[in-house]
Write a structure and sequence with these properties.
single chain, 13 helices, about 425 residues
Length: about 425
């Protein structure tokens, strides 16, 4: 039986126009490691590029555990990697920091290649908009319990760019028997997520879209007075909030984006800055929402739309758990949690970039998803009309669905597992993205 080429080896594109599928997936990361990063360690049997490739391969390969991955490495790909070497690497601060810098570079360079998912809203051009949330998975096998004898889930904070659907680097919140709230971690790490080309320069502040757990009037007041170094928030109000209403802002009813807006209020809280509350009623369902924000220069209807796009980070988490099978922490410790979550982010980003490349170079789109979305919209419009309602105009401007599909991920995984080359993989991926099985 012929031995497959090791897809975990350091990639070389010397094979001409037909490299391995894994090489194409890893290309943005490989280029960043080779040309845009310093302090990359390339000595030893398990150097930094090999570490990166192994982590991405483990996420894509849907291994049940570290030992499962090592056995797969040895028996399927004819590789050799000592158990202690691999597990020790999950506690390396150098490699945690390497992944942080690598994913930052992949995200930065990816912005150039990817279409702007918020292009339908010209007011947001050049303005960073992020969804932020914590991602819980099961504790690691050897995780200690809390003082009550209970295990604590591993929770890591993630940030998703709503312009590109690329996932930024993460920060450990809790685990190993210790509970912690997400907001203090966010306060400590927000500077890491502000775009470096934007920090300290004139222009609109980045917007973070978050659930009500991130309400902190004192912190967001500080962000307001930080000038160009600050940030803004869009969230939901809490039931126990008692805002002081200062004034009601005029709503431009000629702007179709404001369809469904009931009120736009200037409010205040003890010890906090002046904020806005936007009350919105969905014209389609009649559901009512109340949004709280420090953004003062966008239409109230756009505030509602931006918050409703927050669910996209939940879709990324759903992909990680249900399509990639990443439901459990890889190892004990804060460094290991951040390495694991950074590998999730990097793998997600590389898959998004590869899918975009299929579209630009090969004309391959998620046709099945596009058809399903169009059919669903027709059903919604028919149902709303029958109920005397209507689908909001803003729905026509909403960005296309961006969640990685199960068929795309399975085709990617299968092609990598058999050592498939790019030209053959294009046919495989074309079929997976054209129609449902």
């Amino acid at each position: 039986m012929p031995i497959r080429p090791s897809i975990l080896a350091i990639p070389t594109l010397e094979s001409g126009l037909d490299p391995l599928l894994l090489d194409r997936l890893m290309q943005p990361a490989d280029e960043a490691l080779d040309h845009y990063m310093r302090d990359v360690r390339r000595s030893g049997a398990f150097d930094d590029p090999m570490f990166v490739r192994c982590g991405v391969r483990r996420v894509i390969g849907q291994s049940d555990s570290g030992r499962d991955f090592l056995q797969q490495y040895r028996e399927v790909f004819d590789g050799t990697l000592a158990r202690a070497t691999f597990f020790d690497s999950l506690h390396s601060k150098h490699r945690r920091d390497l992944l942080t810098r690598l994913n930052t570079e992949v995200v930065r360079r990816g912005r150039v290649d990817l279409p702007d998912l918020l292009a339908g809203f010209p007011e947001l051009k050049g303005r960073a908009v992020f969804a932020v949330d914590g991602h819980h998975v099961e504790h690691a096998t050897h995780s200690p319990r809390n003082p009550k004898g209970d295990f604590v889930s591993s929770n890591v904070l993630h940030v998703l760019c709503l312009h590109t659907s690329l996932l930024l680097n993460s920060a450990s919140v809790q685990g190993d028997g210790i509970y912690r709230h997400e907001m203090p971690v966010f306060r400590d790490r927000i500077a890491d997520w502000l775009p470096e080309t934007r920090r300290g320069r004139p222009g609109p502040k980045p917007i973070f879209v978050a659930d009500p757990a991130f309400v902190d009037s004192a912190f967001w007041t500080r962000m307001q007075i930080e000038g160009s170094r600050g940030a803004q928030v869009i969230t939901r109000t809490k039931k126990n909030m008692k805002p002081i209403i200062y004034a009601e802002r005029r709503i431009d009813r000629s702007n179709p984006v404001n369809e469904g807006v009931v009120a736009d209020l200037l409010v205040g809280f003890d010890g906090g800055c002046t904020m806005r509350i936007v009350r919105y009623r969905d014209p389609e369902t009649g559901a009512e929402y109340e949004f709280l924000t420090t953004v003062d220069d966008l239409a109230p209807g756009l505030i509602a739309v931006i918050y409703l796009l927050r669910w996209r980070i939940e879709k990324v988490f759903d992909t990680a758990k249900n399509k990639l099978g990443e439901t459990k922490a890889w190892a004990v410790g804060e460094v290991a949690r951040e390495i694991h979550s950074n590998f999730l982010a990097l793998t997600h980003n590389l898959a998004v970039l590869l899918r975009n490349r299929l579209g630009t170079d090969e004309g391959i789109r998620e046709e099945k998803v596009e058809r399903k979305r169009e059919e669903a919209m027709e059903i919604r419009e028919t149902r709303a009309k029958a109920n005397g309602a209507k689908v909001a105009f803003i729905q026509s401007l909403m960005p296309v669905a961006v969640q990685l599909t199960a068929q795309f991920i399975r085709a990617l995984r299968n092609g990598i597992m058999v050592g498939m080359r790019w030209l053959a993989a294009v046919k495989l991926l074309r079929a997976a993205m054209k129609a449902y099985l």
